[in-house]
Amino acid sequence: MNDSEARTTAGSQQVDLNADLGEGCPNDRALLGLVTSTSVCCGAHAGSPEVMRQTLRMACARGVVIGAHPGYPDREGFGRREQDISAEDCRRLIIEQVGVLEALAAELGAPIRFLKPHGALYNQAQRQPGIASGVVAAAAELRLPLLGQPGTLLERLAIEQGVGYIAEGFPDRRYRADGSLVPRSEPNAILHDRDEREAQLLRLVAEGRVATLCIHGDDPRAVANAELVRDVLGRHGIVIRSFLDTAG
Q1: I need a labelling partner for 74 at 20 to 30 A (CA). Which of 82, 83, 143, 247 fits?
Q2: Among 178, 78, 69, 157, which residue's Cα sits nearest to residue 113?
Q3: pTM of the predicted model as reported, rounded to 2 decimal places
Q4: HSE on the CB side for 46, CA within 13 Å?
Q5: Distance (Å, rounded) from C-alpha 103 to C-alpha 99?
Q6: Angle, nearest 10°, between helix axes 87-107 and 49-62?
Q7: Stretch 135-147: mean pLDDT, rounded?
């Protein structure tokens, strides 16, 4: 899927709902009953082979589209501390981690359908040329579309390299005026007020710039957040459907 297709999907009042899972958090089973796609941890920043297997198994049973969620091998920092690595090291890190997930998924006959970097790797890829180049190179080698924010360096490089790009929005994160996310380290980076989250969710869909909305599986409120998103979208006639489903 390219950017224009992603915008058409969102603009036609349907949107995907994704969650980052397989990180050893307690809400995976419940969330897989609420989302249409999941990016599964590749075991470096969190999780384990058994947790990954269990998450893949549950996703298959629910018919949820599966993607890979590689991150920095920094379990203490949950992959959310920025690192200074080369484009080649970034590419290799992703290829190795996705290979582990693909091997586990193959046991179930489950295809990996997209790539979404985790945490600091995700954030750096939106704005740092070296990291963005490494991520795009890995996606091209894996022949997987990328999930990322719209209007970023990563999106531009992906389009230039012919890599599919699926634009993602965050109902519970505060945005800056330039469209970037307020870092978690800053005050009020997370939206807590229900009305404020609902307004942001509707804005993200109405703008037509995103094809998927993210639920953070490690958030203690994850299930409630997903239920809120489904409730708001349902009340406004917005269909929740995988970005890989072009029906309707």
Answers
A1: 143
A2: 69
A3: 0.91
A4: 17
A5: 6
A6: 60
A7: 98
Distances (CA, A) of 167 to 15, 96, 100, 145, 191: 11, 24, 25, 10, 20
Specify the amino acid at residue 131: I
Number of helices (H), then strands (E), belonging to the chain: the values are 9, 7
| DSSP-derived 3-state class of residue 191 | coil
User: For residue 117, what are the contacts with CB-CB under 8 A and spacing of at least 6?
Assistant: 69, 70, 71, 94, 125, 135, 148
Q: Domain-by-domain residue ranges, the chain?
A: 3-240
CATH architecture of 3-240: Alpha-Beta Barrel (3.20)
C-alpha to C-alpha distance for 82 and 153, rounded to whole angstroms: 17
- Among residues 17, 11, 1, 57, the alpha carbon closest in space to that of 168 is found at 17
68 close to 74: Cβ distance less than 8 angstroms = no
Percent of the chain residues past pLDDT 90, beyond the cut: 85
- Cα 5 from Cα 110, distance rounded (Å): 25
Chain centroid, CA 1 distance in Å: 15
CB 240 within 8 A of CB 233: yes
pLDDT in tens, 157-179: 999 999 999 999 999 999 988 88
